[in-house]
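Quick one, probably user error.
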């Protein structure tokens, strides 16, 4: 099996094993799938940290409003009244006005925090240093653990507009966000190795040879970015006769 050290830019992401005979069409999609799933887990546990501190998401029409404005407009958090954490809530105001302030008690808060740390460990970039290869099964395990913790603490579920629930239901809207820019669609992903694009129409062995013990560093990038890089490399070579390293 060829060992791929996947990076985004210069930042290590994870290790992945693949046969040299792998079709790059499928391998590229596989790398993008794992990469995006790890991003999803990171988005979820980031929101779960806020859930543990400040309770569920407020309705969109109540977010950012003061108590006086909410009272004046006669707005009501109906889902917040249904979505009560196990063991009752402890009020802890969300100063930025995204969540309703009805936080879980300390015991339930620790359930969330402990699970987050366990999920982080599963898909940590430190797994690269430990020479542990990442799989979709591992990422799904982390996601399942996060989902399980939310179900324990909030047995009645979360509001349909809470970003945690939306992520678990694959209904998240990342348009216009930095998180959205980080996602690379499987159909638009490209892998690069040694300043070469690993073209989807070929096999991995077309680039690395038949040695199944090869280890390579590949960079996952968005197709539009890669296209611009290719143009820059061509432009530089055309005018100077030198390749970019």
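Nope, works fine. Designed sequence:
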């Amino acid at each position: 099996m060829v060992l791929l050290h996947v990076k985004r830019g210069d930042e290590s992401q994870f290790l992945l094993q693949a046969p040299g005979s792998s079709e790059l069409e499928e391998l590229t999609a596989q790398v993008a799938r794992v990469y995006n799933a790890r991003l999803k887990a990171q988005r979820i546990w980031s929101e779960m940290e806020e859930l543990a501190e400040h309770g569920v998401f407020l309705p969109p029409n109540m977010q950012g409003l003061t108590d006086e404005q909410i009272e004046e407009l006669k707005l009501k958090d109906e889902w917040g009244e249904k979505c009560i954490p196990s063991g009752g809530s402890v009020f802890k105001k969300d100063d930025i006005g995204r969540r309703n302030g009805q936080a879980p008690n300390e015991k339930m808060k620790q359930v969330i925090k402990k699970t987050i740390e366990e999920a982080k460990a599963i898909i940590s970039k430190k797994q690269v240093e430990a020479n542990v290869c990442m799989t979709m099964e591992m990422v799904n395990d982390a996601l399942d653990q996060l989902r399980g913790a939310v179900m324990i603490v909030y047995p009645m579920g979360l509001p349909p507009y809470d970003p945690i629930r939306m992520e678990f239901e694959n209904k998240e809207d990342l348009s216009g966000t930095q998180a959205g820019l980080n996602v690379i669609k499987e159909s638009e992903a490209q892998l690069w190795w040694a300043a070469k694009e690993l073209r989807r129409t070929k096999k991995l062995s077309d680039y690395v040879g038949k040695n199944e013990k090869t280890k390579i560093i590949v960079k996952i990038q968005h197709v539009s970015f890669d296209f611009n890089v290719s143009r820059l490399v061509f432009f530089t070579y055309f005018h100077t006769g030198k390749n970019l390293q």
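The two ends are 28 Å apart (CA to CA).
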